[in-house]
Amino acid sequence: MPATEPSRDGLRGFTREAVRQRLADIALDLFAEHGFDAVTVEQVADAAGISARSLHRYFRSKEDMVIGVPESYGDLVRVALEDRPADEPVMRSLLAAYTAMMGSRAQTERDRVAMRLMSATPALRARNMEKHSLWSEMLAPIVAQRLSGDDVDLRARALVQASLGAFTLALTTWGDAGEDRSVQNLLLVTFRDLVR
């Protein structure tokens, strides 16, 4: 089979991801119009022309329709962090990893809507914190390997948590109405004093 021809599994995965994105777009439109808490999973499924049961094959929860699948982006950050030079300062490596993840696809106006929804909705903020907890578990062991001295595990978790705070602040600022800087530029701002 030629290298440029997608495998059957690869095509199936692409199709699943395309469907997932379309469902998320439908959900975001409904959430933006009516409010996150006012829209049910059944209403999203109805708008998409599928059953609620089918919708749950793509998203475990309503919150994941806005936040995304936490593991997938976490894996992108983890791989990017692992690829950084071992002697690079940890915060520079974390900044580069988040920047690489954000560069993996273009940000859209719907992404801004998602950030505004997340900022305004307690359930979404809580789900985002769960996502960051998962990411922390993935990233802290990599950071710990780059540290020396006492309490490397605790210090690694502190560095990762600080980086996640800077990452979240960059994204929520980007989502603000009137903000015209890119996520990548805002990451440079929020990490500026952490990478010195």
Automatic annotation (TrEMBL):
Residues 17-77 form the HTH tetR-type domain. The keyword Membrane does not apply. SUPFAM superfamilies: Homeodomain-like. Residues 40-59 bind DNA. One of its GO terms (molecular function) is transcription cis-regulatory region binding. It holds the Pfam family TetR_N. InterPro entries: DNA-bd_HTH_TetR-type_CS, Homeodomain-like_sf, HTH-type_TetR-like_transc_reg, HTH_TetR, MftR_C. Keywords: DNA-binding, Transcription, Transcription regulation. PROSITE patterns: HTH_TETR_1, HTH_TETR_2. It comes from the Bacteria. This is TetR family transcriptional regulator. It comes from Microbacterium oleivorans.
